[in-house]
Design a protein that fits this description.
Keywords: ANK repeat, Repeat. Pfam families: Ank_2 (PF12796). This is Ankyrin repeat-containing domain protein. By secondary structure, the chain is an all-alpha fold. Helix 1 runs antiparallel to helix 2, helix 1 packs parallel to helix 3 and helix 5 runs antiparallel to helix 6. The protein starts with 11 loop residues before the first helix and ends with a helix.
């Protein structure tokens, strides 16, 4: 019996993983008649779909099968961790980060890290998880020249901007860029927060 792909070339296991149908995923895996690492037209694997939707149990079952790559990249260079981070699924984010098999600052084709996607969407708890990792570069720029702090400022995520500043690791260039982005969107509370930053105050003071 042949197994055909569904919409956007999804296989049955990919569709079941995306929708969180754990029992169906198990049946498909136990049949031995499906490949669980096949990609759809966007390069997404079943693991990518499950991670992006926050289906923790499905993610675990797929990984326990030993037949999927936890760091598989899609056509956009994004790994499952990137989708979980961007959609705020902290429980799923913990799995690859704690596995030791995934680079936490893995970059996609736009040079964006998972932390960057979490910052844009304002997922504070996810960002905190990344910020606990030694060596994570919060000043890393993507192809649009934006840092994670810049994305948080642009989209008005006050608590997240404060968290980045509280680390003491945000450089002056990132702070100044973030100030400009916050001004453009009229996020006055974030503008005030950035202006209270010591290094930024020093720079502005030098220009007066």
């Amino acid at each position: 019996m042949g197994f055909h792909r569904c919409a956007m070339s999804q296989t049955p296991v990919s569709l079941a993983a995306e929708r969180g149908y754990l029992d169906v995923v198990k049946v498909l895996l136990e049949s031995g008649k499906v490949r669980i690492d096949l990609r759809d037209d966007h390069g997404h694997t079943p693991l990518s779909h499950a991670a992006g939707r926050g289906h923790l149990d499905v993610v675990k079952v797929l990984l326990e099968s030993g037949k999927v790559r936890i760091d598989s990249r899609d056509n956009y260079g994004r790994i499952p961790l990137s989708y979980a981070a961007g959609r705020g699924h902290l429980d799923v984010v913990r799995v690859p980060l704690e596995s030791g098999k995934v680079c936490p600052d893995s970059r996609d084709i736009h040079d964006r890290m998972p932390l960057s996607h979490a910052a844009e969407a304002g997922h504070l708890d996810v960002a905190k998880k990344f910020l606990k990792i030694d060596g994570i570069d919060i000043n890393s720029k993507d192809t649009d020249e934006k840092t994670p702090l810049g994305y948080a400022a642009l989209h008005g995520h006050y608590a997240l901007v404060k968290k980045f500043l509280d680390t003491g690791n945000a450089d002056e260039e990132s702070k100044n860029q973030s100030l400009t982005l916050a001004v453009e969107k009229s996020h006055k509370d974030i503008v005030g927060l950035l202006l209270r930053s010591d290094s930024l105050e020093a720079k502005l003071g030098d220009e007066r």
